[in-house]
Protein 1
Amino acid sequence: MRTKNYNIRTAGQANIPVLGLGTWQSTGQDCVDVVKKALEMGYEHIDTAQAYGNEKEVGEGIKQSGVARDKFFLTTKIFPDDMKFEPEKLKAAAKKSLKDLDVEYVDLLLLHWPDDRVPLSETIPALCELQKQGLTRHIGVSNFNIDHIIEAKKYADVPIVVNQVEFHPFIKQDTLQAFLNNHHILLEAYSPLARGDVFDNDIIKEIADKHNVTPAQISLAWILSDKHRVAIPKTSNPDHLQGNLDAVGVELSAEELEKIGSLASSNGRKIEHPDYSPEWDD
Ligand SMILES: NC(=O)c1ccc[n+]([C@@H]2O[C@H](COP(=O)([O-])OP(=O)(O)OC[C@H]3O[C@@H](n4cnc5c(N)ncnc54)[C@H](OP(=O)(O)O)[C@@H]3O)[C@@H](O)[C@H]2O)c1
């Protein structure tokens, strides 16, 4: 990793830069360009997934940036589609990701969604084996509820370092967060800008004006005010990259943190989840 002090969160042996670039819906040349620019300007963390269909473009952006592989944290995810969670298919899928990304390893390999068709007793050991083989430095999960994580941990002989879930000011994840904290698993916030909804909230706008920053930065600063979280805002717009990264330096008062924290309604999910989503904790 570069030693630039833009904050690292640690879980297991993983040191994860707190703010990464999300790439869902970044496609084609825009994806290549934004990944390249992000790495050039100092982003140290990129998030992609097989399901995003952009691993080749992410890989091309990495290559064009000229930034060495060991200088940034790279995550991809395996989708349950086509029973890829079957151990052998899962391993083949991981290898295909590395090939498309044109890298020797990723830093974090996630199961993108739980999949009741294939038991975690099969998929988690396969994931652990990929880590031991060096294809990924660390493993984690995404969209897992507490029960899934309890089950997954039974079969993991390496740490599960992350659960990547929806998180932003309009959703409560208190129960899940407390559980993850107890188990030294970071909450990785996806859709941290509520896909743009934070821009229209009066309280967030008012606090942003006071700090002379953007609502995006306030949402990210609020998420990152808790040392057990990382965030991966997506942008395909190079003009938004620097501001999002600079959110790491925005400090909110206790009163502001509480005001933003009170925006969430219980179970107030903002993002449409697929019908195979699990029962969420609240
Ligand atoms: N594990 C999962 O199941 C899962 C699910 C969803 C997402 N994710 C990951 O999380 C990442 C982020 O989540 P997301 O894409 O759902 O939503 P998000 O990051 O909350 O919001 C992205 C939206 O905000 C806009 N935006 C970003 N920065 C901005 C800025 N500074 N000013 C104005 N607009 C800005 C983007 O448009 P522009 O591109 O025009 O800037 C885009 O429309 C994804 O890309 C993906 O990597 C994971």
Protein 2
Amino acid sequence: MTATVFDELVGQADAIETLRAAALSANALLAGTNSHAGAMTHAWLFTGPAGSGRSTAARAFAAALQCVRGGIGCGECSGCHTTLGGTHADVRFVVPEGLSIPVALMRELVMRAASAPTAGRWQVLVVEDADRLTEAAANALLKAVEEPPARTVFLLCAPSTHPDDISITIRSRCRSVPLRQPPAAAVAELLTRRDGLAPETAVWAAAAAQGHVGRARRLAGDAQARARREAVLAVPRQLTTIGACFDAAAALIEAAEAEAADAVAALDATERSALEMALGAGGTGKGAAGAARGSAGQLKDLEKRQKSRATRAQRDALDRALMDLAGFYRDVLNTQFGRTVSPIHLDASPVAEAAAARWKPEATLRRLEAILACREAIDANVKPKIAVEAMMLALWKG
Ligand SMILES: [Zn+2]
């Protein structure tokens, strides 16, 4: 089979089939022929666990819609190419950096999405993390989804179709494309084929990343990411006293903060200097004082946005660490139940086996539950330090 924009989507045969048919149908609509009537619709909802490829699927579908070679998503024409590269004039991506997507931004995007497509095909608005829409932003989007302009397509991504993630009214207007956690073997195959990784590294990274394609690639290629994971996997052995539990909690939080700070530092600095440049910081002429008073407000806004983004990055980093840790206890439980599935942390198997011999399965299960409870607590806005400390104590006691 020839390469298409859908090739990056791993282990999602059903979704790919649906999207291919829809893109061909969309092309037929543009051409005025009706050969695939019914397969295309104006609003789509991509759901699936983190790393399953929600945004990859939305991006690939957007490219196929703009593909000038009959909507096949050839990956090579200008329509495919510019969409995948994020520069197509008729495709906009909303990627929330902070904890929520503000209403003003959504109104502006919805308005732009209603204009006629400049390249003569479709106006596409991709909303990644639609679960982070504020209520007002969701309402602005709902109005557009309810009465979509003839040539506008909305592609929304969310973890699930649960009302906590996407409002029932929006969901009811969308065709749902469920994605599953891709099997480790399929992720390993992609890493070998596309990124040229050695098969052994690819298999290890794919398993350790628990089906998260981006995470697998980072683990394989980034020494710091590997070191952070190793530090997390060392935690179970360190929990020998109450003091050690508090130390481990502090270390985990600090590591997440450091990782997040690294991730946003460069962007923060670029944004700040761009704004300062635009505001003419350092001016001394007439009116400079008045301008400085106005710019203080804009700088404050920027700092607020950056703080929200940093908080998000910290939570994401901490959640990755918790998933690594949960993977270890799952491996222990799996060993205790006679290894029905292959381990997540292949390199930590000896430690998991030793723990399996020492603990009762019920205690392992309680430890696993403590990690899941910690994630839920943080999700519900419990202070991460408090939640992680409680978890460490539970992991120690078993
Ligand atoms: Zn193309």
